[in-house]
């Protein structure tokens, strides 16, 4: 169990409290997917979750506090990395996981809403940064192992390679009406792998 950081919604309790948290976060995610941050009203979330409004206001305080805890929970629940034994196989697994998430009828709109909210809400932005640091950190060892196997040059920035896999998929999601399919995911993985092999992500020596 994580220690209480003093931030609303950051305690990780068990029992009934955990069930209340799960119901509230599920409701919050539904609201975000349906209407974005502007629609995230704590009283409405409490009603949907069948939880007392006082409980929601006391534990999360603000919509931003609720979004922060939702992102923390999403990071905790995300699937672990897949290790295939090759750089390309690992990056394809990562890209396909991102693609499935962003193409999901609920998760895709939810991520769009959170990304939009982070542009003007500092607390949401901080929570989003923590979410992606956790996810990138989960997959970075796949790239580090590729360096150890000799597939990539020494000094390759593992985190930047992982980010390069996801970037084209988010760009496609946010700037086009084109579908996010497996072909898009595999193309992103191949491009990142080719760039990494060419040394594009080697950190310059200071």
Short description:
The chain is an all-alpha fold. It has helices spanning 15-35, 42-49, 53-60, 63-77, 87-103, 107-118, 122-148, 158-175, 182-197.
Word description of this protein:
The chain has 206 residues and is mainly alpha-helical. The protein has two domains: 56 residues, Orthogonal Bundle (Arc Repressor Mutant, subunit A), CATH 1.10.10; 120 residues, Orthogonal Bundle (Tetracycline Repressor, domain 2). It contains nine helices and no strands. The chain is elongated, with a radius of gyration of 19 Å. The N and C termini lie far apart (40 Å). The N terminus is likely disordered.
List the helices and strands and how they pair.
Blueprint: H1 15-35, H2 42-49, H3 53-60, H4 63-77, H5 87-103, H6 107-118, H7 122-148, H8 158-175, H9 182-197
Helix pairs in contact: 1-2, 1-4, 1-6, 2-3, 4-7, 5-7, 5-8, 5-9, 6-7, 7-8, 8-9
Number of strands: 0
Through-space gap between termini: 40 Å
Oligomer: single chain
Segments where pLDDT lies below 50 for 5+ residues?
Answer: 1-13
Quick one: CATH class of the largest domain?
Mainly Alpha
- DSSP helix count? 9
How many strands, what sense, and barrel or not for the largest sheet? none
* Mean pLDDT, all residues: 89
Q: Which band does the percent of strand residues land in?
A: under 5%
CATH architecture of the largest domain: Orthogonal Bundle
Reported by name, the CATH topology of the largest domain is Tetracycline Repressor, domain 2
What is the helical fraction, as a range of percent?
55-70%
The helix-and-strand class reads mainly alpha
Number of domains: 2
Rg computed from alpha carbons, rounded to a whole number of angstroms:
19 Å
CATH superfamily of the largest domain: Tetracycline Repressor, domain 2
